[in-house]
Fold each of these.
Amino acid sequence: MNHNMHPEDRPAAEWRRLTGHEEAASALPEPSLQDPVAVGTMFCNALSDPKYFRPVLTRFVTPESLSAWGDFSAAATFLDSVQDAGYGSFAERALGDDDVAYFKILSGVTDSYQVLDEQIIAAAGVVTLVWRPELGEWRVHGIGEYLKPEDVPHGH
């Protein structure tokens, strides 16, 4: 019996199904500022070259946090520090506040896969996003640790 084993110790076939990159890409949302997974993915992808993508990165963050991001190099360094980084396929809403979402950054992702069974998967970090109704879009407020909803500006 393997049901009492830690998910990482279970045979892969029991809790996940390996997929090809094309299948995994087709499961991702279309680029949209109304989807926190899409915003989290685009933000992390833009961190691959923060100098080149600075105009894009500044567009994705909350106005209140813009000055704290600086040139985005600290965020890029954090993401680079995650070995074999991969991303979750959904954004978890904050407890008691659906306007705050957490996009998981996972480590050790060497293959694309579909989760078949509920798993507790520890994140190496998260992108904290907030829905801004006055803008009609999700914005990034932080990367790394989970930010509490009360520490995230919700706009007007």
Amino acid sequence: MNLDSNLRTARLFRKDDGRTTVLAEVPLLIRTGVPLPLRLWVRGGRIETFMDGRPVIDVTDTRYAHGRIGLKVFGGRTAYQGTFVRAP
């Protein structure tokens, strides 16, 4: 999930051979300088994202049956804490 405080949006992307596909984009007011607990649930083709316990994005994408998870920071600073992946 991409959080952009300047554009006030949350987005979910998929990468395909160097190309980026936006799966979902929603308006979202994002406060900077405060902790933002994020959670992503991926089951089958369904991807749900939550910020501070509230649903943000709920989308279905069945392009890939398995893949990788990436964390990225662009144009800012962040700290990851308690980051893990758990298989069902």
Amino acid sequence: MIEVEVRQLLVSPAHRLAGRPADGPAPGPADERVRRVKVRRGLGLVGDRYYARAAHRDASVTIMSAEHLPVHLAPAVDLRHTRRNVLLAGVDIDSLVGATVTLDCGSGPVPFAVNRPARPCAWMDVTVAPGAQRALRGGGGVRCTPLGDGTLTVGPARLWVGDG
């Protein structure tokens, strides 16, 4: 068991980074971060753009380690810029591809299959800062499938790592 902190949660109802990065993000709410979110097995985060989308079932939740944020390029960078769903401090989530992790924010355990890296794209150079795509290589987070229902909340949490 690892003591971690859920620093931020982001639930975006619309895909905002489509098309050419030079055109900028699509309009949307200024802040899509939330304090709590419901997770549904095999479907994702309730209210998120990838929730219950067949093409994204194995990647419906993205988790990123706070330690990998390129704060040297953009000190105020957060999930609004990287477009990941969960920002965790205290664990290198990128090193856990192929594992099953269970996150408990105090309301019960929520297991996730950590399927593959969430590779940074050219949009990172626009939404974060020039050079962010390169800086995030190997640390852009992971794409996961929720293996159970539950609730995630911002604040202290516990994480268990199991075999994939």
Amino acid sequence: MVDLEQVRTDLENLMTDTVRVRRPTGETAPEDGAPVWATIYEGAGALLSTHGQIVVRQLLGADWLGEASAWYQLMTPLSAPVADPGDQVEVVEGDQGFAERTWFVEARTQTSTVEVVRVTRLDEQTGALAVGV
């Protein structure tokens, strides 16, 4: 039998970045009309490219992230809130390759009866879609 607590611990140990998830409030800034964002989560996480997802699968010997068609996935502890489509994700501390890059949540965070971490599909955005970044 698989020790889910150990798997959870192993996955959380891979969350070496500090990520921020923001949600649009529906308001706009009076000075420039940019969307106003509220931070719903800032804490441990790992932003994984498709390659990173494969590496995690190899390290753990099992596919705990599920079948991934997303180019990027955000992995956060179960204590993190569920992200909604349109939420914005950025790495605020960690891998410098993520500096000044923004991702948007493609679909609501995956949930299931048996969970070990939160997994959220992301899409990297720039330009007009990233207004208010």
